[in-house]
Amino acid sequence: MFNKKAKRNFRQRKEESSDEDDGKKDREVENGENETPVSVLRPLGLSKSRGISCSSRRKKIRAARKQRRQARARQDFIPLDGDQHGMEEEAEEDHSEDSDDGTDDHQRTIQFAPKLKTIKERIAETIGGSEDEDDSADSEEENDRNVWEEQQIGKGIKRHKLSSCDYSQGSVKHKKKVDIPETLPAVTIDVIKRRITGKLESLREVHRAREADLRRMQLDMECAQASLEQLQSSSSDEQHRFYKAMRSYVQNLVECLTEKTVVINSVEMDMHTLLIDQAEVLLNRRREAVHKESSHLQQLAYSADPSSNGTEEKQKESQPCNLEAACKGVPADSEPLPDEKAELECKTADILKRAQDIFSDVQDEFSSVKKILAKFNEWRVLYPESYYNAYISFCIPKLLSPIIRHQLIGWNPLKADGEDFEALPWYYAVEDFCHGQGYEELENTDRETLPLIVQKTILPKVQGFVELVWDPLSSEQSLCLTKLCRRLNNDYMVFGGEQSKQGKAFMDAVTVRLRNAVDEDVFIPLYPKKFLEDTSSQQFQFQDRQFWSAVKVLHALLGNITLWDGLVPDNVLMELALDKLLNRYVMMILLNTPPGKESVEKFKKVAACFPKSWFQDVDTRSSIPQLRNFSSHLVQTTHSLCKNNPDATCIRETVKDVFVLLGRIKALNSVATIAEKYHYEDISNSLNLL
């Protein structure tokens, strides 16, 4: 836009200068200056005045063009199409002038038709026409832009005036609001002293803050200096060599254990298969014996053959009553036969020999837990930061799992005389790594290595024994299992707090196995009353043995309840022990037992299985709902004893035992009723039951 304005101004100046030159020439002609002789002009066919004016005009035009070229050369912009067009016009004028200088008007060839134009001239005309249109459009846009700029400038000037007026008014108002007091307050020494004291305190605070910053900076400098000295003393090449050697060692260790894991799994599976087969043989033998004897006694009870009755009478005479022996304890556990036991020991020895040969071709550096942990301990001592950043304590349990399982192949958690897992070599090595010298300075992750190994390696192995080998009717196996679980929970917190995935799976396996034992291994036969009243009959003795077997299962469920407490939920134990076992099977025999000392003895054996924790929070005086049938039948038995024996001295000890049982299950209302009706308040008072 600026170039176009400059061009327009230049053209206006040129026209004005040309008009002035023309006027000056006319004045010179009128005054007779620069006259040319007429004799010279006449041969040319020109008048004197015309020749003088033309020559002077050419000179003026040439001078103006020269001046215009010089002005264009001095400008610091590139001329656009308009200037180019002007230059072309000037070139044409120069050419016309040159042609005028050489020929006269009558000598020129008159063109009666327009001359044909070349292709270049046509393209130039087309471009020139479009450029003219663009120039006209640009001029219109330029005019609109100029109008808009003038409007904006006008608005800005108005706003500036208004703001200056507002500012002047505001300053006047502000000046009006300021009130300068006529008199200033008096300055005393106390005021000066307070100000100086306040300033001094502020400076002291600043000084203390600066001193604290200085001490902190000095401490940082000391730490930086110590780090610098440590870095200068230690070589990066040495650290790099250590990491490289550790990487190579771990890779070789992983490859070795990966190869040996296949063999360990095979040997471990053979050992488990051997124990599972033995457990199935004992279980099937017990179930088959119970089924066979039950079928035989059922035939004897409902057979009309007199010969069978005679046989039964002979058996009565030959077999004495063993009720007293049965009341003294539960039946013994099933044991394998001598031949089976010898075969089992032989196969076990062969499997253990195969297990010893697994790492016979491996160096101790890759098979000894102690030496493996020594490598990681060296890393922990030399470069603790990288050791903890690599979370090595969480990798060690999985890394050592094959070696630990190899040492646990001969371990049986269900045998009391077996070797304990804490006596194996791997345990001492891990314990020394986690709780050795200076363990107080270790992080929590290192101290949790041993519990993680127990949780991820020991517990799954025990779970396999529970699912496939454990017999809940075996007192020895149940006692060993519950003691082991209690120790794992107390020492390693395997089941405490938020129960882990392995802990939850283990307790689910225990619950399923107990439920199967109640559903499949408890059997109480039913016989006519005449056989049950005769304590010497085979039916009575068989039913009595089955009763004590059920009590044995109940004892396995509840006798060690303090060990299962917190592991198996109480509602699950109550469902299995009370709803399914006691009320479905055991109460059936207790209801059919004649009232007497024998029945009270059975009540005592059953009640001894109930854990005290079930009755600690009982607020009522009538026991828990699941034991109402048990307590009511015990009360009825006591009433029958008191009515059948008017002499209270002979049944006094029996009544005392009943009071103890009722007090144990918190059935205190029943104790008060019996004591008041039969005058046994002294017994209840001596037991503090009222």
TrEMBL record:
<feature type="domain" description="GCF C-terminal">
    <location>
        <begin position="453"/>
        <end position="586"/>
    </location>
</feature>
<protein>
    <submittedName>
        <fullName>GC-rich sequence DNA-binding factor 2-like</fullName>
    </submittedName>
</protein>
<feature type="compositionally biased region" description="Basic residues">
    <location>
        <begin position="1"/>
        <end position="11"/>
    </location>
</feature>
<feature type="region of interest" description="Disordered">
    <location>
        <begin position="294"/>
        <end position="319"/>
    </location>
</feature>
<comment type="similarity">
    <text>Belongs to the GCF family.</text>
</comment>
<feature type="region of interest" description="Disordered">
    <location>
        <begin position="1"/>
        <end position="153"/>
    </location>
</feature>
<dbReference type="GO" id="GO:0000398">
    <property type="term" value="P:mRNA splicing, via spliceosome"/>
</dbReference>
<feature type="domain" description="GCF C-terminal">
    <location>
        <begin position="370"/>
        <end position="418"/>
    </location>
</feature>
<feature type="compositionally biased region" description="Basic and acidic residues">
    <location>
        <begin position="12"/>
        <end position="30"/>
    </location>
</feature>
<dbReference type="Pfam" id="PF07842">
    <property type="entry name" value="GCFC"/>
</dbReference>
<feature type="compositionally biased region" description="Polar residues">
    <location>
        <begin position="296"/>
        <end position="310"/>
    </location>
</feature>
<dbReference type="InterPro" id="IPR022783">
    <property type="entry name" value="GCFC_dom"/>
</dbReference>
<feature type="compositionally biased region" description="Acidic residues">
    <location>
        <begin position="89"/>
        <end position="103"/>
    </location>
</feature>
<feature type="compositionally biased region" description="Basic residues">
    <location>
        <begin position="56"/>
        <end position="72"/>
    </location>
</feature>
<feature type="compositionally biased region" description="Acidic residues">
    <location>
        <begin position="130"/>
        <end position="143"/>
    </location>
</feature>
<dbReference type="GO" id="GO:0003677">
    <property type="term" value="F:DNA binding"/>
</dbReference>
<keyword id="KW-0539">Nucleus</keyword>
<keyword id="KW-0238">DNA-binding</keyword>
<dbReference type="InterPro" id="IPR012890">
    <property type="entry name" value="GCFC2-like"/>
</dbReference>
<dbReference type="GO" id="GO:0005634">
    <property type="term" value="C:nucleus"/>
</dbReference>
